[in-house]
Amino acid sequence: MSFARPLAIRALSLLGVLMAVLVLLVVSLGATGVSDKLLRAIVGEEVRGIRSGLAQTPGIDPDELENIVAARRKDLEESYGLDKAWWRRLPNTVFRVISLDLGEARTLKSTSGSRKVSDIVLDRLPNTALLLTTSLVITALIGLVMGVRMATKVGSKTDRILSYFSAISFAMPTWWMGILMILIFAFQLDLLPAGGMYGTPPPEGGFARFGDLLWHAILPVSTLVLVSIGPYMYSVRTMTMNVAQEDHVMIARAKGMPEGVVTRRHILRVAAPPIVTGLIFGLTSSLGGSILVETIFNWRGMGRLFFDAITGTPDEAVIVALTFVFTLMFVIARFILEVLYVILDPRVRYN
Amino acid sequence: MAFLDVQDLKLHYGTRDGAVRAVDGVSFTLGEKGEAVGIVGESGSGKSSLAISLMRLLPSNVVLAEGKAYLGGRDILSLPSEQFRKEIRWQVMAMVVQGSMNSLNPVLRVGGQITERLLLDGGVSKKEANARAEELLELVGLPKEILQRYPHELSGGMKQRVAIAMALVMSPQMLILDEPTSALDVSVQAQVMNLLKRLKRDRGLSMLFITHDIALASDICDRILVSYAGEHVEAGSIEQVLTEPKHPYTQKLISSIPRLHDQTKPDFLSGQPPNMAEPPSGCRFHPRCPRAFEPCSEKPPPEFVVAEGHTVRCWLYAEETQSQA
Amino acid sequence: MTFRQILRELVSNGPGKAGVAMLVILIALSIYSVARFPFNFGETRWNNPAEWADNPKAVPPSWSNWLSGSNGVAHKKVTVREPAEVVTGARGTVRTYALSWDFDVDEPPTFVSMTVEGLTYNVRPPVLSFSLARPDGTEVVLLRQVARAPRPGEVAPFVRFREEPLRISITTEPNAINAMGDFFRQNYTETVSSDVLRFSMARALVSVPDPSVDEDGERLFPGGLRLLPGTYEFRVTATVTDVGDTLDSVRFVVGGSVFGLMGTDGLGRDLAVGLLFGLPIALFIGIAASVVTTTIGASLGIISGYVGGKTDLAIQRLSDIILNVPLLPLLIFLVFVFGSNLFLIIFFLVAFSWPGLTILIRSMVLQIRSGQLIESAVALGASRWRVMFRHVFPHAAPFIFSQMIFFAPAAILAEAGLSFLGLGDPSIPTWGQILQDGFTTGAVFLGYWWWVVPPGVLIMITAVTFMFLALGLEPVVNPRLRRMN
């Protein structure tokens, strides 16, 4: 099959990415001693608890107490694998993570109270997906229309204004855009909620609840759209312009094809593969940007979760699991891109 | 009556350095059916601009486009653009351009690109269109399986044949060929030239053959128009121009063709093509001309008739003939 | 193309011109900033609360008065070295240090502090007294303090308050607040509750009690305190017994409700200073990261494309993997593990950013390589490295250069993003960190725009400068565009 081979190669390479990230995680956590430090802290905390519990037992001999505590500490260290070197301990974590057994969190919890990281992730994933897909669809629609419009009127006033807008949009930090949005629409004008996903108290009933969610999503989604639309629009313009200058477009006009057909069939259809690529590239970078946007708008998604896991009480299991899940999401998005590219561009299929 | 009569065609592009006069007052006629006129000149002499002027495919930076081109008595350059698109493009005039690599849409199958124009007006079924495409492929010597292929699966020669087949789909009376063979290997070039000669002979196609290679032009053309810096400097039948070139530029072009069994070394033209934004005064060729004399740098030479159907723009011939203009 | 020609092309179009002008301004400001602040500014000054104790906290810039139309108190900080008056009496010599202050606006100051520095005495510890003379002729003594007596074994002269100046925050000092309450009780018929005084001491200092109410029974003046405009005098007197006893200086600070060019943050830090210091840092991050990234990316691209074979395959595989890695999550992770050192952050940025350029340059080199010029150079026996850097590189150079400029804003934004997440280098204040301080302390929700808007604007201006330069270079890189205009 002409489709299967290039896709298989890409899948293999993306699998390589996943592996590389995991190796990087293990080595940097292990070789720096951070992993040991984190685990010792957990053990230390538990041992303190045991000691103070035992100290209240009436009539306990201090020596005996020390013995019990030492024994418990040894047990704990063994159960956390601290008696083994990191290169023996951490690969187990990795194999567990690869089989999607993400382990348990120490402090974070899902809404239903589960400590299983997979439950927490499943809790948050839809929220991030809602944010990203909505902004992606809006960016794609506006970006395409405006980009093509710019390309057909290169050098015009519209083109120039939109080009400057693109430069500014590219230079605008996502999170600062978010802050400005809050400052203007939530603080100054008091129009929209500054953060969170639901009002307090959340409205009753599925429909009202969903409406409230959308209401809270307006600011984060517009933030993501505003920062990603400029570069996307400009790249659509450039790619459309490059194709429009090619000979086959001139020939299509010479053939007597009407301008609409020329634009659709001979310009946009040819520019489609890189345009779609650009869009998914944008999506993957907003995946990173979602960490910032979700932090600012207090949106309980994956990005916020990742941020909490690292800056709160650092939890090794959660960090490894989440970095893995993030990379997985990234890699899946990339693979979708490859499939689309192969469908859209016949040249890839045969090379 | 001539099939196509082009009068004083001009095309200037706007650049930062000023207006570039790519075509600056070119007139010629394409005679009876089956006549081929060659436009010969260095690259950058405005030959391709002539083709896009006639097809009205002007880029956005054109600042001046004027002149007349009569086809069957009406000036096609002043037709409403929608009418021109429907009635002239591909119906009467089709074109094949240089760089066979890029003249086909890379993401569409070859068959669809050939039949596209045929299907546009309706009245032709897909099946009929395909049959027509197969017939054309046979004519240009390609197997019909090609229809299902994508351009990148074809060789350069195959693509150029597809481009020619595509140009023939509406049975036009005239083909504009802009360097149709220059991106091809020599052997493939010969095959394509033979195909074009066959088309000209069997189908009575008129051709405007644009090339930098005067030898190639002589292979297929009946008349030759030598163009320099946006103007034509000499025009005549193939025998006249090749055997008795009058203009020093034409003479240089011809003597630069290497010949077998000849003692004389090929002669090359020295210097650079002129800056088309600020062409030299008088005769545009005078800075590079070995025989330039006083009037050359002052007054642009008019067209002098040196023989029946043989004209030249050069002050050298002012004495022996009278000006046509 | 020579450098000169590139420059001429650059300034011949709008974005290029704007980019060059902005870059010149940014560089000039950076040079000023580097000359003015030491490199350890972050540790020794920015993150040192004592440095900013005398500034008002979270107040807007001075020019915001003009924006809002209100009339805020200007910040006043004066150090007095010579006594205004010296009176010698039975109990000793009284030296009075004073600051006269005209109060004519409709807002009280945000705070008042008086600081005594370097007191030297020979025999008996002098008595310091802090008081305020009010426009209605009254004087309120806010605090009296005796310098610490000699420690056992200490020999004269005894030096006090030199290493640690005696800073009295009049507006929060409980004794001063009590003194103010007593003063109101003694001089006016109306009293003011101590609760009100505790929260509005600064207002009380410049007011008289006035509990008048309007028709609805609402107080006309907040806390029952009517502002009393006029000329005030802050006084510090030192009563000494020995003529050789000296006082170095007294610093009076009247906290403004506006401050300086850019206002202050929640710790009273002068934002103008922080923002200025952040400029060279941002430029450094952008330029360092982009130069290193493009050097690595372009070299590997040229090698990969020109050498081919296994080297090519290895470089391609590596770049493919790195290019597909999610940048921000991994950056966060790495900074978490390895610590947030600025150079490490730049290193990580570079490590994940070179492959994009490598892939582009590789395909360019493959095209250039098939050209005749390179073939002839190889035929002439030029070595591989020579061909690569003398013949291949110059063809790709304009493109590489524009990519370098294009990458700078990306690096600046990435660092700012990390700083905003609280992962910036704590020893070097950056714009991202100022924003993070503002965001985490709720400046956004309190409407402290002067704290969160300028750092972002500056990040954008810097990034846009590079964007404009890259846009201006487009005709150099893509000659097709040069003809079009």
Question: Would you give an account of this structure?
Answer:
The complex is a heterotrimer of chains A (351), B (325) and C (485). Chain A has 13 helices and no strands. Chain A has helices at 4-31, 34-55, 62-79, 86-98, 117-152, 157-171, 174-188, 206-244, 247-254, 259-296, 302-311, 316-344, 346-350. By secondary structure, chain B is α/β, with parallel strands linked by helices. Chain B has helices at 47-54, 81-87, 110-120, 126-139, 156-167, 186-203, 214-220, 238-243, 248-255; strands at residues 4-15, 18-30, 36-40, 62-71, 74-75, 93-96, 174-178, 206-211, 223-228, 231-237, 304-307, 310-312. In chain B, the strands form 2 sheets. Chain B has an 8-stranded mixed sheet, with helices on both faces. A 4-stranded antiparallel sheet of chain B has the order 2-1-4-5. The longest helix of chain B is centred in the middle third of the chain and has 18 residues, at 186-203. In chain C, 52% of the residues lie in helices and 16% in strands. Chain C has 17 helices and 12 strands. In chain C, the strands form 3 sheets. In chain C, strands 1, 4, 7, 8 and 12 form a 5-stranded antiparallel sheet that branches. A 5-stranded antiparallel sheet of chain C has the order 2-3-11-5-6. In chain C, a hairpin with a 5-residue loop joins β5 (127-133) and β6. In chain C, α13 runs parallel beside α14 (431-440). Chain C is elongated, with a radius of gyration of 32 Å. Residues 481-485 of chain C have low confidence and may be disordered. The interface between A and C is large, with 56 and 45 residues.
